[in-house]
Design goal:
Structural class: alpha/beta
Order of helices and strands: EEHEHEHEHHHEHHEHHHEEH
Strand order of the largest sheet: 5-4-3-6-7
Bound molecules: iron/sulfur cluster, zinc ion
Distance between the termini: 59 Å
Largest sheet: 5 strands, parallel
């Protein structure tokens, strides 16, 4: 059995990429120290913030919420709230949602829920059916991703948040990086940095808390703190490209530890080189931030024939 490199007790985790092992206590210290250094390195937060953590109720977002609550006890100017988007996916969202509700109750966290049904008039399940019947070419995850990001921004503004935290981890980021390389989409790669800046008055700044933390470690952190919700897979979970890429990157990491971090360094160089990204414009229909004349959410809504007048 491997021993903790700090205290010599039995280790629960070995980080092959740095050749060190950790017992439970020192894993937590080491993990939290590294997230804090990400926060510092990329200047994620100021002294006074209303931080909205986007939580699905899955292990990564639960870990993010838990970590920030703990950290906020030392920062009096921080106010943490949880933001949950209910897409309306039957047999899936209810499970993680219940887990999240219980956590928020027990830990006295304000929970704000915004749903597709309420904002777009249809649940994701209904949108997917409707889209199929109209012969539209989009996958469920396209609607889900576009509408979720849109609602997170709306929700963040409604609760008066100054910053939104998402729980994207190192694995998510490098997988998306490689997927965009394979698709030849450099524009998207340039948007994979650790945070967005105030590109638009109506756009709440967003940071990726676990940008430099491998998924294995966020999962272990969640597990140690009993933040592991019952595992239920989304019925629309993509089995295509991302799955293959994930397997490939994990195999490379196994063979040459540190691969993911090297990919991240390359990505950060690209992001820095392409800093001249155009400022966001304003969608002609809904007035929300957009990269084109009409935002992606309104484009999809128009194609679906959904009501584009938003509830107040
Ligand atoms: Fe949404 Fe796709 Fe994730 Fe399901 S797998 S929650 S549809 S993005
Ligand atoms: Zn130890």
């Amino acid at each position: 059995m491997a021993k903790c490199s700090v205290c010599g007790k039995e280790a629960i985790y070995c980080a092959k990429y740095e050749g060190r092992c950790y017992c439970k206590e020192h894993f937590i210290k080491w993990f939290e120290g590294r997230v804090r250094s990400t926060i510092r390195r990329f200047s994620f937060f100021g002294k006074r913030e209303k931080i909205a953590v986007a939580v699905s109720g899955g292990k990564d977002s639960m870990a993010a919420l838990h970590f920030l609550l703990k950290l906020s006890k030392k920062v009096p100017g921080w106010d943490i709230v949880a933001l949950h988007i209910d897409e309306g996916i039957k047999g899936y969202r209810e499970h993680t949602r219940r887990f999240l509700e219980r956590y928020c109750e027990e830990n006295n966290v304000e929970l704000h829920v915004f749903s597709f049904k309420e904002f777009f008039g249809q649940t994701l399940d209904e949108i997917v059916e409707f889209s199929k019947s109209k012969g539209l070419p989009y996958l469920p995850c396209t609607y889900c991703g576009v509408f979720r990001r849109y609602l997170i921004n709306m929700g963040a503004k409604k609760v008066g948040a100054t910053v939104v935290v998402t729980a994207h981890n190192l694995d998510d980021v490098v997988q998306t990086f490689l997927m965009n390389i394979l698709r030849g989409d450099v524009e998207r790669i340039s948007r994979l940095g650790p945070k967005t800046e105030g590109e638009h008055l109506k756009f709440v700044r967003r940071v990726k808390l676990f940008y430099e933390i491998p998924e294995k470690e966020t999962a272990l952190y969640a597990y140690i703190h009993n933040l592991y919700p019952p595992f239920v897979e989304c019925p629309y979970a993509p089995t295509g490209l991302r799955w293959d890429i994930r397997q490939f990157i994990n195999k490379m990491e196994e063979r040459t530890p540190g691969t993911k971090f090297r990919m991240l360094r390359a990505l950060l160089d690209i992001v820095t080189l392409s800093k001249k990204t155009p400022r966001l414009r304003t969608c002609k229909i809904c007035g929300e931030p957009s990269s084109g004349e009409i935002c992606r959410a309104c484009q999809l809504r128009l194609e679906l024939g959904l009501d584009i007048s938003l509830p107040p």
